[in-house]
Amino acid sequence: MSKIDLNKVEFETMVIHAGQGADPAYGALATPIYQTSTFCFETVEEGAAKFANEVPGYHPVYSRSGNPTTRAFELKCAAMEGGEDCVATASGMGAVGSVMLAFLKTGDHVIFDNAVYGGTNYVASTNLPEIGIEVSRVDTGDLEAVKAAIKPNTKMIYFETPNNPMLKVTDIAAIKKLAGPDIKVVVDGTFAPPPVQFALKQGADIVLHSITKYINGHGDALGGIVVGKADDIARVRKNSVTKINGCPPSPFNSYLVLRGMKTLALRMRQHCASALEVAKYLKSNPYVKTVYYPGLESHPQHALASRQMENGMYGGMLSFELNDNVKGLSSFDAGKKLLNSLKIPAIAVSLGDPDTLIEHPASMTHAGVAPEDRLAAGITDGLVRLSVGLESPKDLIADFEQAFQAL
Ligand code: LCS
Predict the structure, then answer these.
(1) Which ligand 1 atom lies nearest to the CA of residue 164?
(2) Which of 51, 86, 87, 324 could pair covalently with 77 via S-S, beta carbons 3.0-4.6 A apart?
(3) 212 lines ligand 1 (CB under 6 A)
(4) In ligand 1, which atom is closest to the CA atom of 213?
């Protein structure tokens, strides 16, 4: 482990060193990929002692329940979020499902924000009701609505902040106040990882991420993490990640994320600065009706975002809608033409990559959400979502200019 007192250094230093130290076998500085399914014991007695947890230190026995490369990744993520522990999963959905199965049972009630990622929406609208878990959908930005939805059997309040794809900001501290000690507040922080937002510090009980996005940051691995208090994380690991879901990440993917996280602070700073620049440009564009970006003063929760998100950063994601009747086109048709004319952004789902990605939520990430639910959440057919990458913002703006001219 690192010799540095990680509590006394800045985030940039901490996130490079946390969880990682010279490898005990040969002193390798980069954490080796322990690409193994199982671990050998010298004797039956040693195996029994390791299974019974009677051996000090980290002693993996089988890679579904623990792997040294994945453990280094988990420890780095726990430090990143300021949580007691972390469990890693094979995808962000693995993290979402594992949290649900760890804390909810038939007869319980859970409150979900009315706009979440399409996969999570399916969990709320279909998977949980199928196993007898009651779900209420409310706008978690409306604290009165959340308060009114709480019932005696409510066990969890779940939301993304900012949310996918509307960039709505939910007040984590205020929701925890309403929830009290017995209802778990679970925040999906995928759109704004540290050092942009520290959900546990704001009062969340659990923060989860799709690390497929900014945390790995290179668009080459799927993964998820769940971070929180040690006993909660032990429950998620034992009840669901290593059992019913059986969804740990591969050691290779854990290695990729460890590598990607070394530049997390640097990357987030640039994603946020470029997104603000592109958001301002789009806002000033006569073809654009609305831009959803928490860093713009016109965003309805800009003041809350400025309190809850840190270091003057508001994330690298934005959405926008074109005007109707742009050269006779509907907002939807103009949006399609714009996407097809852009040269730098790839038309692709996912987000948080070095490459700028652009997509159409109504037909892609949120196609599985019922049309009336999409509209209630503000996801119109004309909405376009942009993940601002690490290319020069000057080049991105010039590309938008030529694409608008092609309309
Ligand atoms: N949470 C959020 C907020 C997400 O945006 C996603 C995926 C997930 C959880 C699930 O993570 P995964 O299993 O994909 O690692 N969001 C995607 C998106 O907006 N486009 O493609 C995937």
Answers:
(1) 3
(2) 86
(3) yes
(4) 15
Residue 121 near ligand 1, beta carbon < 6 Å: no
292 CA to middle of ligand 1, Å?
A: 19
Average pLDDT, stretch 49-63?
A: 96
Residue 287 CB contacts under 8 Å (≥ 6 apart), including other chains: 322, 323, 326, 334, 404, 407
Q: Does the pLDDT value for residue 1 go beyond 80?
A: no
What average pLDDT does range 154-167 have in this prediction?
Answer: 98
pLDDT of residue 59: 95
Q: Ligand 1 in contact with 350 (CB < 6 A)? A: yes
Query: 17-26, 193-202, 242-251: which range is least confident on average?
Result: 17-26
| pLDDT over threshold 90, residue 3 | no
